[in-house]
Design goal:
homodimer; 408 residues; alpha+beta; L-amino peptidase D-ALA esterase/amidase; Ubiquitin-like (UB roll); 2 domains; 5-stranded mixed sheet; 11 helices
Chain lengths: 408, 408
Amino acid sequence: MAVNLQPPRREDLLPVAGVELGWAEAGIRKPGRKDLLVIRLASTAVVAGVFTRNRFAAAPVLVCREHLDDGGPIRALVVNTGNANAGTGAAGLADARATCEAVGRLLGVAPQAVLPFSTGVIMEPLPVDRLVAGLPQAVSSLAAGHWLEAAEAIMTTDTLPKAVSRRVTIAGREVTITGIAKGAGMIRPNMATMLGFVAMDAAVPRDILQSMTLHAADRSFNRITVDGDTSTNDSFVIMASGAGDLQVVKRTDASFAPLQEALTDVARTLAQAIVRDGEGATKFIEVRVDEAHSVGEAAQVAYAVAHSPLVKTAFFASDPNLGRILAAVGNAGVADLDPARVQLRLDDVWVVRDGGRHPEYREADGQRVMKQSEILVHLQLGRGNESTSVWTTDFSHDYVSINADYRS
Amino acid sequence: MAVNLQPPRREDLLPVAGVELGWAEAGIRKPGRKDLLVIRLASTAVVAGVFTRNRFAAAPVLVCREHLDDGGPIRALVVNTGNANAGTGAAGLADARATCEAVGRLLGVAPQAVLPFSTGVIMEPLPVDRLVAGLPQAVSSLAAGHWLEAAEAIMTTDTLPKAVSRRVTIAGREVTITGIAKGAGMIRPNMATMLGFVAMDAAVPRDILQSMTLHAADRSFNRITVDGDTSTNDSFVIMASGAGDLQVVKRTDASFAPLQEALTDVARTLAQAIVRDGEGATKFIEVRVDEAHSVGEAAQVAYAVAHSPLVKTAFFASDPNLGRILAAVGNAGVADLDPARVQLRLDDVWVVRDGGRHPEYREADGQRVMKQSEILVHLQLGRGNESTSVWTTDFSHDYVSINADYRS
């Protein structure tokens, strides 16, 4: 079902020096599938992360924030699927801490050096015994070449693993970046998505890495939506192992901007992969808003279009019922929007001129674009010079089926 | 498909003195169905209305506002289905005015005394010639006993006509109230829904009638949602014909509050009928939020739950995957919400205590409630003393089918 998304090929996924990955079949929710991942980092590694703004943030998210705020070295990540450990109160927090302690014992590092992540059903107790029992298997398989298995180990309703690598030369030095992500539903990240992990071998100080992470998130995971539901577990982490050739010391370094752009490119590719694999998706849609008063306003309008069930079902049906897009724009909460300044194009087809149907618009032209698997919805608001894009999917019968049957 | 909604019986719909209704089959979109309604009001009538806040408000909405602001008497309403006359620019505005002129000529009243309403597909030119050609038939059938036909004439994707009557005695005088409404999709009214018309025979000054209309809308049409999409054409109108026994002169009259409550009751019944007939609905769900800081905050949280596709598909599946409700609450934008103070009940079943799963909650109990056709989702936020309720539906395969096929 995924839209123009290929499974990653093992040979395309580059090991990152200083980063090892191991997995297990711990039977967290169901037996016989990879559901536990451990990532071990070199002692030189620096880690930064952004997390969900959902007020019901999951226990592992709370523990991640705590361990990162602690300021000490981060030496390992542990990820389970099958259970979100969210809405689980004090017991859930204890389970997340116990997970970090168990990983710490096995790797010989402090519990505070471990970041925990969970994804799956909300409000069910984490089967922490089964998780801990699976850890030795995960640790015994740690190796730098296991990115594909790692991508598989974090899948839930994803139909394909999501992973990408880039090798770039910056300031004459080679940097290797590899990232994985999971997610297909409950996707409208607010800070980051559940779950994205990107590693590189460059050395970057913590504060600079954190700002690079925010920069990348705001242009990737914070610009996608499948169903408008922000998860309790969204987490996006960048790991700089420091085991490679490139070292960034300060923001004014010539290498800062190119490295930030390379990381953003990897994050955007992963974020778009999540949309392409969105639950029930048959179309990949970019909603681009230009001439907004601010980037925030552009995003607000783009999300109003991207979240409208009526717009999404029209895309599913390839029906150029494009008045629904205008209704969504009018509904976006921009109080002083002047409809008479709004332009709408579908790819190259000019549909709405100055707030009304373009006199030369023909439904056959709209129909042609609507039938494509990738569509650009291009809006101009006539209010300013700011722009943004949001990537989303259509809304199909399969979305309903997948989410009506998720737990069964 | 409608949830516990019966078609209105002709004998239950009471004529309102001073109000006549006539219809036609004008072939606006398709031939052979009622698609045009004219309501004629006595010269004593007073009319108030509330309209969509969508910035792409339809041409008839703009003309309604203009004619009401004008302050002169309103003597007729004209309603077409099959075409929303929205996103139609200057031509659409001219068409709406031409419609009022044609009605005015036939009834011998000024064009400014006519309020126009449209519902149907957005961004297609109104076939004003067919509409005007159908008016003589509608006018020739004007009669006080035609409320059922009027309810039928304003239907689009509705599966059943929606109409209700009440006869109440206030301050020793009898008042008759009859209302009709339409709507099944693009339902998240913001001020009022497309379309609600309520008439009564009491006499009420314009300013008091306007505040009664706002009061009723805020407790009825402004508290329902099917898909979160605010229409371009939402309109809710109350007509006070003044042909009956009761006269309200000022807000301090003993009759003011009971009459306002009777109107609100009629509006709420019609609004809930729209939800029960929501596109693809299999369940009727009340989301009640107590202990909020403000009514606005309560509504914000209730809508976040009522709009979540994941919550709605879980209800469709009768799957007590209730963590999705917590995720929606955490996602409602209440920045300082303390999860540890949140309680969640499903009807009488206590699911979440102090932000986590209640230790005595059993999934079988949640399952029992989820299987019902009517469900109360009851949240307490532990932040204050304000409450509100929002009524909504589940999200089914049929919603997708209906909206993917709407125009075909």
